[in-house]
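Protocol step 4 of 6: structure prediction from sequence.
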Amino acid sequence: SAVHVGHSGFRKDQRERRFRQYQKIENSFFCGFDHGWVDPCAGIELYFDEKNKRIFAINELYQRKLKLTEIGKRLKECIPRTGEGWPVQVDNARPDVIDHLRDCAINAQSCKKIQIKERIDALQTYLIVVHPRCENLLMELSSYRWQKDRNDAILPVPIDEQNHILDSISYALSGELVYGKTGYRTFKNDPYL
């Protein structure tokens, strides 16, 4: 008589659980891009860990006077996931840049813009871990300033300069932000639902 060997339901459950965990990890990578000419073109690749309140900056692009025809190539060199069909959230003020990136086989998508103060409120609730190769992000984080009044008192108004990679971060995570009950934006918990 023949002996039939089958997989138990336990092994199938393990495989399915591992697959769901893998999907959660894969769905936690985000890319953003901010186009500039005098201001630099800035791109970022992030791993977003909502459960542990961490944002990991992995790769960046930061270059001034980058021609439109060179953007796709440089983005793929500096942030390899962008060449693998990964969605890249791009500033919606420049549809020509989005169209050009799509022509370069980059999955560019128009993002929702977030006010600077709302972005800061949301990002301050997270630990941002920066890889040493993201030196321009480190520079921006250390040089961020707030406006001051005539008496040198700090106002609750951020200065909108030296924040190009920070803009890219807000573009990358724009789909993960929702309005909270208080009116401030907070991150939703999609990766770990």
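Step 5 (inspection) to follow. Confidence is low (pLDDT under 50) at residues 179-186, 189-193.
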